[in-house]
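S.,

As promised, the S-adenosylmethionine run. Input:
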Amino acid sequence: MNYRHAYHAGNFADLQKHAILLAVLEALKARSPSLSVIDTHAGAGGYDLSGEMARRSGEADAGIFRLLQEADAPAVFAPLIAAVRAMNGGRDGPLYPGSPLLIAGALRREDRYTACELRDDDFDLLRRSLAPYAFAQASKADGYETAAARAGRGGRAFILIDPPFERPDDYARIVEVTRQALQRDPAAVLAIWTPLKDLETFDAFVRGLETVTNDALVAEVRLRPLLDPMKMNGSTMVLVGAPPEVEPAVRTATEWIVRNLGQAGGAARVWRTSA
Ligand SMILES: C[S@@+](CC[C@H](N)C(=O)[O-])C[C@H]1O[C@@H](n2cnc3c(N)ncnc32)[C@H](O)[C@@H]1O
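Predicted complex:
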């Protein structure tokens, strides 16, 4: 496992993932007295964007730093911007929350949160990030196995799946864990992040997902036309079983990112699989 999220934290894909994550959490809190959130691939918890890895990639410049400059950013980004400023003592600054700090900051005492991370170094950081939150547990375990085993064990399941896609079987494992989670908790909600390199890979994934659910909302950020499959040309968030009221927020976040961070020929596509 070579992937370190510190190189990519706060980039355009994190903006899409994290803004939508917070919108889904708000909708689920309004509907469910208790949630059981499982973050299958949690990373370090939070990131210092002035650190060497983030500076070397510079990806946050066309991400969170651009968003923070926007006086009239759409409301869907307000919870993310507030979380970033809170982490930086109320100002704009270099600290950026990963999914663990965003989730832990949004949850209530009656909710439960399990964050899985396999790398020793990132797990240590994750454990320290989550130490202040009594309802949160950092787990050095495989995220897919944990999600499949824990969904439906009290509280409505909400599963964030955000792998590094270093392994050829990640897409197949996501489909399988979706099947298992829905079997254990038919009301489970899943938020799945994927890179967008070429359409064939993504279409095959969606077709696989359609074998286990007919309720998926797909949000594609195409930063540029998908001509070079070796490049990360965009990202997607796929929501399974999400409350319909999140759709406008998903659409707004996806369109803003393409309009403001995309290149010529970029496109935002938000669509539902067959109902
Ligand atoms: C894309 S990063 C996570 C970023 C995080 N979700 C966020 O938004 O801040 C993926 C992480 O998954 C970890 N990882 C890889 N395979 C895993 C597995 N099977 N179970 C748990 N963690 C895994 C990697 O070490 C890496 O830190």
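Strands lie at 35-39, 46-48, 95-97, 112-116, 136-139, 156-161, 189-196, 216-222, 234-240, 267-272. The chain has a mean pLDDT of 96.

- D.
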